[in-house]
């Protein structure tokens, strides 16, 4: 095939540890499946910032833009003020590269320890389509009278009709695409008679955010006319959190705002066995700039440097990257290898109740690729 150029940002904390494990998997699967690629490494994150003051210089940004896809570990450093690296690197890339969808599957693999009693892999199998370019994340606002008793801080949620609609349209397409696995099991016979095959839940807060989420609801309803096969569903975000725990099987595809999507996908990570298992893709569906794949978790400073971070979230994000570049079979082979490792008692990292290292789990996945 043609040469794939992968930008790699290991980043901070456990980022480099889980990326190292992921690159070993990529190397083997690519060799086996005949995928030709080159890696371009980027030294970005807390260490470089503290040494040089650089966050994301123009030259790095230009070189990242020339990559086909990007694989990122995590950014965030205990010695750097909150937001400097997160906004300056992660959010900057998501915005500049028009990665307007953050796709976050929530899927329980057999053997992964969900804390949800009585629920299994058939019950916990949904995907969150998180809007990734707007809302509270744009950084609109500021302070008045900062540092005084009269201080006011304003941070505005921006919701454009075009930005919301393209994300919702992506989510309807994602729901429709899941029809290839058969109909959503949460549909009633009546739903099926009406021609519904899958379900899309809008998660918002229309009862309070009567401007922003009114726009979301209208965009949702109007876009739904093009998708008569997808059942439209709505949940307020607070009730959504409750039901993700009590009735995870009622969710198929969720579409939501940037901020709510951030929050509910950490909850979703727990449903599937913890932060060590949750994968994501920041997608530019129009392919006008690279998409970026990263675990949902952060730099985990509490366990960094010990070699015990769970690499599976990053490895599953690498699989999502392969899906995105059209190597779906290789992606599926990685997921099968991860599933086979999770199905055994060992090796497991401490977050999954085991005593093994990042490298031992990574090696087991690599061996399972045979
Ligand atoms: P975190 O996700 O880093 O850690 C939360 C908890 O999950 C910690 O107890 C951690 O040990 C555990 N954990 C995370 N990843 C794990 C893994 N692979 N294996 C085992 N356990 C794991 O969230 P936080 O502590 O709130 O944030 C730490 C830093 O990371 C902050 O600077 C934050 O801004 C940043 N952050 C970055 C990203 C990103 O780069 N995408 C995402 C979230 C947070
Ligand atoms: C995530 C992270 C980021 C977010 C932070 C680090 C900016 O929490 O990817 O979920 O809020 O999107
Ligand atoms: Mn988050």
UniProtKB/TrEMBL annotation:
Pfam families per record: Iso_dh
Domain of life according to the entry: Bacteria
Enzyme Commission (EC) number: 1.1.1.85
Ranges where the Isopropylmalate dehydrogenase-like domain occurs: 5-365
Cofactor(s) listed: Mn(2+); Mg(2+)
Keywords noted in UniProt: Amino-acid biosynthesis, Branched-chain amino acid biosynthesis, Leucine biosynthesis, Magnesium, Manganese, Metal-binding, NAD, Oxidoreductase
One Gene Ontology MF term: magnesium ion binding
Ranges for region Disordered: 345-370
Any one of the GO BP annotations: L-leucine biosynthetic process
Family, per entry: Belongs to the isocitrate and isopropylmalate dehydrogenases family. LeuB type 1 subfamily.
Record PANTHER family: D-MALATE DEHYDROGENASE [DECARBOXYLATING]
Subunit text: Homodimer.
The protein, known as: 3-isopropylmalate dehydrogenase
Organism: Paludisphaera borealis
Taxonomic lineage from the root: Bacteria, Pseudomonadati, Planctomycetota, Planctomycetia, Isosphaerales
């Amino acid at each position: 095939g043609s040469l794939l150029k992968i930008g790699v940002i290991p980043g901070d904390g456990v980022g480099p540890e889980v990326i190292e494990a992921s690159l070993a998997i990529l190397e083997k699967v690519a060799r086996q499946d005949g995928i030709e690629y080159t890696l371009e490494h980027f030294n970005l994150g807390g260490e470089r910032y503290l040494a040089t003051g650089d966050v994301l210089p123009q030259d790095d940004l230009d070189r990242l833009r020339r990559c086909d896809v990007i694989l990122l570990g995590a950014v965030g450093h205990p010695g750097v003020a909150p937001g400097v690296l997160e906004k300056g690197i992660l959010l900057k890339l998501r915005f500049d590269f028009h990665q307007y969808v953050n796709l976050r599957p929530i899927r329980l693999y057999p053997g992964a320890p969900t804390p949800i009693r009585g629920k299994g892999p058939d019950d916990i199998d949904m995907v969150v389509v998180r809007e990734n370019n707007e809302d509270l994340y744009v950084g609109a606002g500021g302070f008045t009278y900062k540092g005084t008793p009269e201080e006011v801080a304003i941070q505005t949620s921006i919701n454009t009709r075009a930005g919301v609609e393209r994300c919702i349209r992506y989510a309807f397409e994602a729901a429709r695409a899941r029809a290839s696995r058969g109909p959503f099991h949460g549909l009633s016979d009546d739903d099926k008679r009406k021609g519904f095959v899958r379900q899309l839940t809008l998660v918002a807060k229309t009862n309070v955010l009567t401007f922003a989420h009114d726009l979301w609801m209208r965009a949702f309803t109007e876009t739904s006319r093009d998708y008569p096969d997808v059942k439209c569903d709505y949940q307020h975000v607070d009730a959504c959190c409750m039901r993700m725990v009590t009735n995870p099987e009622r969710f198929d595809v969720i579409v939501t705002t940037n901020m709510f999507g951030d929050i509910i996908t950490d909850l979703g990570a727990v449903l599937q066995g913890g932060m060590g298992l949750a994968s994501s893709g920041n997608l530019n569906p129009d392919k006008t700039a690279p998409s970026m794949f990263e675990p949902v978790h952060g730099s985990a400073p509490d366990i960094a440097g010990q070699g015990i971070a769970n690499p599976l979230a990053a490895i599953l994000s690498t699989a999502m990257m392969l899906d995105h570049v059209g190597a779906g079979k290789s992606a599926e082979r990685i997921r099968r290898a991860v599933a086979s490792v999770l199905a055994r008692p060992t090796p497991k990292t401490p977050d999954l109740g085991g005593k093994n290292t990042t490298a031992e789990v990574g090696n087991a996945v690599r061996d399972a690729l045979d």
